Amino acid sequence: MAQTLYDKLWDAHLVKQRDDGTALIYIDRQLLHEVTSPQAFEGLRLASRKPWRLNANLATPDHNVPTTLKERSAGVSGIEDETSRIQVQTLDDNCDEFGITEFKINDIRQGIVHVIGPEQGATLPGMTLVCGDSHTATHGAFAALAHGVGTSEVEHVLATQCLIQRKMKNLLIQVDGELQPGVTAKDIILAVIGEIGTAGGTGYAMEFAGSAIASLSMEGRMTICNMAIEAGARVGLVGCDQTTIDYVKGRPFAPKGEQWEQAVAYWKTLHSDADAAFDKVVTLDAASIEPQVSWGTSPEMVAPIKGKVPDPAQAADESQRKSWERALEYMGLKANQAITDIQLDRVFIGSCTNSRIEDLRAAAEVAKGRKVAASLKEALVVPGSGLVKKQAEEEGLDKIFIEAGFQWREPGCSMCLAMNADKLGQGEHCASTSNRNFEGRQGYGGRTHLVSPAMAAAAAIAGHFVDVRNF
Amino acid sequence: MQKFTQLNGLVAPLDRANVDTDLIIPKQFLKSIKRTGFGPNLFDELRYLDEGFPGQDCSQRPVNKDFVLNQPRYQGSEVLLARKNFGCGSSREHAPWALVDYGFRAVIAPSFADIFFNNAPKNGLLLIQLDEATVERLFQEVEANEGYRLLVDLPAQTVTTPSGEVLSFEMDSFRKHCLIEGLDDIGLTLKDADAIKAYEAKRAEQTPWIFS
Ligand code: SF4
Questions:
Q1: Which among A42, A210, B90, B110 has most CB atoms closer than 10 A?
Q2: Model's pTM, two decimal places?
Q3: Per the CATH hierarchy, to which homologous superfamily does domain A292-470 belong?
Q4: Which residues pair with A254 in a beta bridge?
């Protein structure tokens, strides 16, 4: 019978189907970070349990790590914020105690979990992968079944190498056609979320397919799957093709020699069959997608760059009207205001959505030979990992950014969720390449606008949003 | 984990759709390495007028009197009535920990986000899904009647209103069993250790690179 990619991955990892409708699913890889793991390790200790399969796990600190060289140079002990320092130290201690491989704070391989997994080849096609972080959907770009899980589930996977799951339904997002120049993967996913809403994918595994997706690089596919969760889907997926295989080849954790050949033969089967049935299909025309900017406090509140902030009087229903009004108030915006009129205080280029080499190249291309607007307080570029940073420096991207007036930082989550020192002040507007524009996400009272790296760089130069296609 | 069978709880209405986990418990409180103590910071940005910090004495902070949980009539509430897509956003289990630590035992909403839906019952927090029209009606009843309580009966899968109306809800049998018995999932899964080992042996032949 014709199967979807999700069906294939599910079947391959089914340990046991239980009568009550739940299933035990085997987990090939778990990524760990400092925020959602301490209580899981504590749970293991309290129950005198050991990790089931040590080498399935890989850890790195990312959420809390400072990004200035000054604070980073002394390692963990140099982290000024005491609670952050304790959390990072606790991860180190737990990994040492249990024998889990960890890329510690100043290891060149350290970075955001969702950047380092693929970069190391620790994320492979056909795997099941979990992490105590909702953006684990990112890894689905490799035709891997990747779930974000809570801390109890982190502990469950550590102890049993399995997850208790119910099978989800299949949703296909079909994006055909060619993107306009200056329009990127980030704009595709923001447009999708604008279309189906933040709960549109709830209960589904969301597969992205079509010619526009096939022509994306792995970085672009990761950006798209990363934000599947913003559309409510715990799992995002893209089928495996030559682009996937080329990306994985030669990475440190990737199979080698004879096993490589065997793996590739298997990976080539990891796509939905041509006549597989999906429970729901949404189609988008790539050519009609414009650069997107979020104006509100939910990722579904997006508008094309040439558009306007919506008018609550035009809302579809009472509940939408209320949430638009609340969002406008929080964001300090007026109905019908042009998106290009939104003035910015800060710009953040980074996060697991857009901090890979291709993202930095796209931003640098816009920034090259230009200057950050004097009205901006700060424009940050935070690479996703030590290795991304190194590569960018080899390509001279750091110099382009620094000359333009951006700050070039050490890798981590940084201003994506502001658990470290990088945050927005109250009422400040930020063009951000991250994934969430929730109230307070980037700092208390901060106002986030989600955009692509090229759009963020252009906004930094102009001091307000501009259409990168005219730049 | 605390067992859940029956509860006759005071209801607090949170009239807002898409309540995200950042709103339930802001990130600065995620720096704790414990599972408890999050209650005073539940809905921190809605409850207080200033910015909260971990470890602070919340009793000294300026409170937002308009926020529902700060209103005298909702003190001691154990059932949270909410709107659609409750718990969207991050996977932080700190969200159910904060709700439970505050004193909530159940949340009623038309829909819940997937990860939150998985996390909550593992912490003894019962999530009850009722259709949108019913939830709307409950909102009106709660707001109109001070001291409004709902009788939640998990074994029977019913919610009974003060007027005696009985509303049924769906619940998967695994979650129900674990909640009623206060069972730890890990212990249950480890009963299948042989099945897990057999799976690993089979997969190690099919996909050896995963296990090498
Ligand atoms: S970069 Fe942001 S979204 Fe990604 S893992 Fe870090 S905090 Fe989460």
A1: B90
A2: 0.94
A3: Aconitase, domain 3 (3.30.499.10)
A4: none
